[in-house]
Known about the structure:
alpha/beta, Lyase, Ornithine Decarboxylase, Chain A, domain 1, TIM Barrel, 2 domains, nine-stranded mixed sheet, 12 helices, elongated, binds pyridoxal-5'-phosphate
Amino acid sequence: MKFIAGNSLLRRVNDEIFIDSLPINEFITKFKTPLIILLENRIKENIKNFNKVFASEFKNFHCFYSFKANYLPEICEIVNSEGIGAEVVGILELKLALKLGFPSEKILVGGPYLPDELIDLSIKHGIREIVIYNVENLKKINFYAQKYNIVQNICIRITSQKYGSKLGINIDESTLNLLKDLKKNLSNIRITSILSHYSTQMNNYKQYQTNLNSIITSLKLLLKYGISIDNINLGGGFPEATVMPQRQLRNIAKKIKSHLDESNISYKNIYFEPGRYLVGDSGLFLTKIVRFTNKNWTFLDIGNHICPKFARCSLRFYNASQINEPHKFPTSFAGIMPSDQDVLAKNYFFTKKIKEGDIVIVTNIGAYCLTFSNRFPYSLPIILLVKGTNYKEIFNPIFDKDFSLNSI
Length: 408
Ligand SMILES: Cc1ncc(COP(=O)(O)O)c(C=O)c1O
């Protein structure tokens, strides 16, 4: 028995491939490609693992799933069943979180655009914190908090030190003076938390450290201006769980803890907002080779419209029709969009012989693929949710038309 792509729910047993506890043929014979398969038990395993690692370092740790990684209601429902919170960026995600029964005190709402309706709904439902990306939002939030006669907790997102980062608030002298004034004059808001999200696919502790240093520097500056913050939020940015083994995650958690201890800052709670780590490796495509050239280009029946580069997934390719053949011959994968830019991977180790009609498993597509996908004029794939020996169709383009959150 061997794991495929390091995924405990994708196994090769002799000649056969199992997706959770079902043989791959179950899907190949019943469904057309491309097909998306999402693994419920993998999401649960990843959440348990993430919680275990961080809870063993921090007794005051809270985890909020970043809905934008994969906002399919069935996926968010699985996340809710594991008891972690939600991080949402817009009104439809907020409505979905509330509908699925995420407790309000476990929901963070925030983003670069906070329309009135989103602020109103957030405050009406008593969500835990509103995350602001610019200081001007505070007046508006104070107005709605007054309307409901409450004091709203606020988290300020600061710009990370990453080159070119423009999301969030720059903690400079004029901002600090403005915050100080607003704190005095706006009695229906309380600044409780600070967030810095640095990047995506962060494999190297240095990136976490840079993020942490931004938070520590900003906390000290805020304190100088009389603003003391309770909670720190380090955002997300972890790679897929198959890409970052538990040992490495634990190492990062330990280093974050000791860096915080050494920096002598006090904080009540520490938050993380992982998206990709929790759902990335729960998703795979079953796709088909539609053509290949003698120049090592293999064309699949997916493309960047449904498996976009923007999603920054750690894609892995396996020839399911020849799974026992060595995968050590470089091939480049292209998609079906009529564009030279539709490249999925270059010089990826694959089987020597390539046949039209071979089924290819593409792993690690559970996060951001649907989010960044576009409406290129091809049919959307069926999406199945697999659990043990069962599966259900959670999206069929013929009946469901579109997986966007158009209304909740
Ligand atoms: C503020 C914030 N939190 C969390 C996330 C989730 O990141 P990831 O899926 O890389 O963990 C993002 C992603 O852009 C983000 O901007």
